[in-house]
Amino acid sequence: MSKSRFLICFILLAFAFSALSDGQATNQGQRRGVRPQRPEPSSAGVPPIFQRLYARLETVLDRWTTEIDRRWNGDLYNMLVPMASVLLANSNAGFPILRKENREFTRLYIQRLKELGCRGVQLDIQFPILDPEYFRFAKEQGLIPKDSPEDKDFLEFYKKVAEDVRSQGLRLSVESQVIFVQKTWSPLPVEPYYAEFEKAGEAGFAAYRQRKLAMAKLIAAELRPDFFTMEDEPDTAMSLTGIQLLKKRENYLGLVKELVDGVRPLVRNTTKIGSGIGIWISDWETWLKDLLKMDIDFVNLHIYPLEINPYASRDDIVPRTLKAADAAHQAGKGVAVGETWLYKTMAGDTTDPETIYGRDYYDFWIPLDIEHLRLIFKIAHFKKFEYVSPFWSSFFFSYLTYQEARGQNTAELKRRNNLRVFQNLMKGIFSPTGMAYRDIAAAGPRR
């Protein structure tokens, strides 16, 4: 492919990728309690506007790292699978992921993740991307052009991606919930489709369950993932779909049970089935207890804000994660982290996710991003997790300096950084965070 064509591909894919990005040597012999020196922020340092937030996050990370170091004996759990999300194949990005150029870059992305020490990768295949009824509805309603690709095209794409994963000798994890309705996160017009289920009441909810089950069975039969998580953030699914009947706990849990029971016979002894929660939700323990009663093999935790309440640290994300792991093991289930990244917010700060995620692009966060990954992997080795899959894997390849990016909105930051991600992907260049992740995957989270 010529350089000019590559440049065009970079630009096209940067826009496509933006729809998503908005929307082991052992550690034996190392002295206990001695931690590696944290890399310094970029030469310009932390901008004044972020210094208070940076200091708070640093304090929280130090607190919980010290606590885990005190409790964990440093032994590595060799069954832990380091993973990362294949963002170029995330179904929220919609039709652009089907472009030939994206297919090539996705293959290369998987190769680079393996070079970083990943022993598995994760795909997010969200409803209704493999539901034929969605594409029929969207075309009839004029939401998408009549000649748009359909469910079968996305299925073929994912089958090829799964083949790429297997050819690299990697394990495959699939998560499946629902596509986002906000244009910031996905260009696919799915909100009117969700609204149809709500309009039809009980019959609509029954149709929703039936179509979700059909898609889950399709993923299980065609992709044969090693790990398959069905439904992972109850609050997110309830909010996005707007289906009132789904907002009832017993109905949501009934859906999860239908999915698990329907898929289990198709993948018995080949796929570990899971379901999960965002560990930030207030009633997380009740949700966890209900899920652990089901025929699942593991609980999938999504970990984002480390600090829930600065005045109640015993209820922070780390203590919750440790308690969840103990409860799961006591119930004979495994534990995994299907999503995590350092969520750059604090008490009294904005709650707008677009603004918060927009902060990720600045390279002065690199030292804290690395510390966050080390902390999560220490917990994972300590509590013997199945796998850990950081979500924003694009930052393994590139960040932006604050000086070159200040004043730009989140969409502009995404496009600019994603272009650099593709360029570095081609050259095999990794960010300091990517290099640190390689060390963590290979040697464990050094103390």
Explain the layout of strands and helices:
Layout: H1 3-21, H2 48-71, E1 81-82, H3 100-115, E2 120-124, H4 132-140, H5 151-167, E3 171-176, H6 191-199, H7 201-223, E4 227-230, H8 234-241, H9 249-267, E5 272-278, H10 284-292, E6 298-303, H11 317-330, E7 334-340, H12 353-358, H13 366-382, E8 387-388, H14 402-405, H15 410-427, H16 432-443
Helix pairs in contact: 1-15, 2-13, 3-5, 6-7, 7-9, 10-11, 13-16
Description:
- Helix content is 50%, strand content 9%.
- The protein contains 16 helices and 8 strands.
- The termini are far apart.
- Strand 6, helix 11 (317-330) and strand 7 (334-340) form a beta-alpha-beta unit.
- It has helices at residues 3-21, 48-71, 100-115, 132-140, 151-167, 191-199, 201-223, 234-241, 249-267, 284-292, 317-330, 353-358, 366-382, 402-405, 410-427, 432-443, and strands at 81-82, 120-124, 171-176, 227-230, 272-278, 298-303, 334-340, 387-388.
- Helix 13 (366-382) packs parallel to helix 16.
- The strands form 2 sheets. The chain has a 6-stranded parallel β-sheet with strand order 2-3-4-5-6-7. A two-stranded parallel ribbon has the order 1-8.
- It has one domain (3-24, 36-443): Glycosidases (TIM Barrel), CATH 3.20.20.
- It is an alpha/beta fold and 447 residues long.
- Mean pLDDT is 90; it is low at 1-16 and 21-38.
Briefly characterize the structure.
By secondary structure, this protein is an alpha/beta fold. The protein has helices at 3-21, 48-71, 100-115, 132-140, 151-167, 191-199, 201-223, 234-241, 249-267, 284-292, 317-330, 353-358, 366-382, 402-405, 410-427, 432-443, and strands spanning 81-82, 120-124, 171-176, 227-230, 272-278, 298-303, 334-340, 387-388.
